[in-house]
Amino acid sequence: MERPATHWLAALAALLLLSTLACGGAGSSTGTSTVPTNPTATYEFWKGSIPNSYYSLNIYGDRALQVTGKPWMVLKRDPITLQILDCEFGLSEVTQTQIPNANNQPGSPEPTLAATSIDYYTNLQLDTTKPVTLCVGWGAKPTLVNGVQNFTFQVGSSPGGVGYNESWSFSFLSSTMWGDVTNIDKTYYLGIDSDSKAFSLMKL
Predict the structure, then answer these.
(1) Contacts of 130 (CB under 8 A, 6+ apart)
(2) What is the CA radius of gyration of the chain?
(3) pLDDT tens figures, 48-101
(4) Residues 6+ apart with CB under 8 A from 138
(5) Strand partners, 161
(6) CB of 4 closer than 8 Å to CB of 45
(7) Phi, psi (degrees; rounded to nearest 5) at 53
(8) What is the pLDDT of residues 129-167, one digit of tens each?
(9) Whole-number Å distance between alpha carbons of 89 and 137
């Protein structure tokens, strides 16, 4: 005696469900994960509204040139761990002033760029009529260390095997950040220098 059509439909539906589970459907370990295996990095934008300063040193290690502008930063984070992977940092609306020093030796002017040459300048709302300095560019920072609401790294290089010439340190809360830079090249003084917590930024 043949089964009613409804029984065949029920049996077919059960077979389809089993097939789906076996081929990576719901509950299968071979299914597509909700966490991407190669997640795209996320970016955060920070900017200061008040001019901050750092100093270019002369050959004697004196602070000889004051560079002033509004700080900006782009942070690159791992979207899963939220660890900071890289950053870009500089000042916008830059002015440069030679300052008196013990050896009466001027500092070399800092190179500047057009604001439109900076990645994400529109996100940062940079004034495109004024120059910017790029203090820290994108690139490998093997010394970057993530702490608890802070990160540090060293960049730059000096001749003669001196190594890195600048040490950077930043601390942050949910919407505020502050940081500074220290010259660590005591031979050629090719790094830049700032006061403690010289840079103050807000998250955009």
Answers:
(1) 92, 93, 94, 115
(2) 27
(3) 999 999 999 999 999 999 999 999 999 999 999 999 999 999 999 999 999 999
(4) 76, 86, 88, 119
(5) none
(6) no
(7) -135, 150
(8) 999 999 999 998 999 999 999 999 999 998 888 899 999
(9) 7
Band of the pLDDT at 39, cuts 50, 70, 90?
low
Backbone angles phi, psi at 50, to 5 degrees: -115, 135
Buried b (16+ CB within 10 A) or exposed e, 97-127: eeeebeeeeebeebebeebeebeebeebebe
The angle subtended at Cα 149 by Cα 50 and Cα 145, nearest 5°, is: 105
3-state class percentages of the chain: helix first, strand second, coil last, to nearest 5: 10, 40, 50
Distance between CA atoms of residues 177 and 146, nearest Å: 14
Query: Hunting for tokens 């200061």 — which residue is that?
Result: 48
Q: Tokens representing 194?
A: 């700032």
> Coil, strand or helix: which one is 44?
strand
- In sequence order, what are the beta bridge partners of 98? 65
